[in-house]
Structure formats: C-alpha cells, structure tokens
Design goal:
The radius of gyration is 18 Å and the shape is elongated. The chain has six helices and no strands. With about 160 residues, it is mainly alpha-helical. The chain has one domain (about 5-165): nmb1532 protein domain like (Four Helix Bundle (Hemerythrin (Met), subunit A), Up-down Bundle). The longest helix is centred in the C-terminal third of the chain and has 36 residues, at about 115-150. The structure holds fe (ii) ion (FE2).
C-alpha cells in the first residue's frame, strides 16, 4: 500500500478531530455569551448539555481507541518516556479529568445558578476548548506523522480499521 491521503490510516480520525473542533467552537461561543450576559439562558444550557453528551459519547471513546490502538505499537517502536507517547497519554488523562470538572461545574450551575457558577463553568469549559485544540494539533503535526513513518503496515492497518466508520 502507498501512503497517499486516500489510504492514510489517520484519514477518518483526522476528520473526527475536525468535527470535534466544530463542537468546541460552538461550546466556546455559548460560554462567551454566558460571560457577556452574566446569564445561563435555556439555549446556553442546551449547548452545555450537548457538549457533555459529545464529550462522553464521541470524544472519550476516541481517546480510549487512541490509547488502545496507536500508543502501544508506537511505544514498542519509539519508547514511552521522553517521547510523544508519554505526552499524549498524559494529555488524554488531563482531558478526562477536565471533562469530569466541567460536568461537576455544569451540575452546580443547574443546582445553584449564580455568576460564580457561570464563571466556574466557563473556566473549565474554556480549558477543555483550548487544551483539546492544542492536543489535536499536536497529534496531527507530530504523533500521526511519526506513526506513519515508524509503525509497520500491520499496525497501520489496525488503526485504519479501528477508526473506520
Ligand atoms: Fe488524542
């Protein structure tokens, strides 16, 4: 097999990341609006809940699939410590913690709506938006190119199959 973009093992995953960035942009806009209006209107709350659904149903399973399918063979090829493998594994854990904090802030906002609760929801939400944006960029520009170069074709085929949809 060649390495043209049409059979790039990361083609589908890169498309998913691009869709995720669109979701994050929508979340960022609603957080900005809440900060500007100092209110969590129904339309804002719907987007916060949709973001949580997106994190749980779409984002976290993709992180788990990356952990299972990409990182172990890459660790075998380039090692873990002092490499991108460790950086990406650490960032996945940081994202999981961030999602939990965002969910907790959202619950507090529902239970006790206040300016402080809006600010706390914004703080955790903006952290996720910025951290994920940087994380996807790092994978696109460093992790995936290294994997394309260093992984055997059998592993690349597993990645292609795992992320196909
Ligand atoms: Fe990732």
């Amino acid at each position: 097999m060649g390495d043209g973009s049409d059979d790039d093992p990361f083609y589908t995953l890169l498309g998913d990341h691009a869709d995720f960035v669109d979701k994050l942009t929508e979340l960022e806009a609603t957080l900005d609006e809440m900060i500007a209006t100092r209110e969590a209107r129904e339309a804002n709350r719907i987007i916060l809940d949709e973001s949580i659904r997106f994190f749980e149903d779409e984002l976290l399973p993709v992180l788990a699939a990356e952990d299972e399918t990409i990182l172990p063979p890459l660790e075998a090829a380039i090692g873990r410590y002092g490499t991108l493998v460790n950086v990406v594994a650490y960032e996945h854990d940081e994202i999981r913690r961030g999602v939990e904090k965002f969910k907790a802030a959202r619950r507090d906002l529902e239970a006790h709506p206040s300016w402080a609760a809006i600010q706390e929801t914004n703080r955790h939400g903006i952290f996720l938006v910025q951290f994920l944006w940087d994380h996807f960029r790092k994978e696109r520009t460093s992790l995936f190119p290294t994997a394309r170069e260093r992984l055997p074709e059998t592993e690349l085929e597993s990645i292609r199959t795992r992320f196909a949809h």
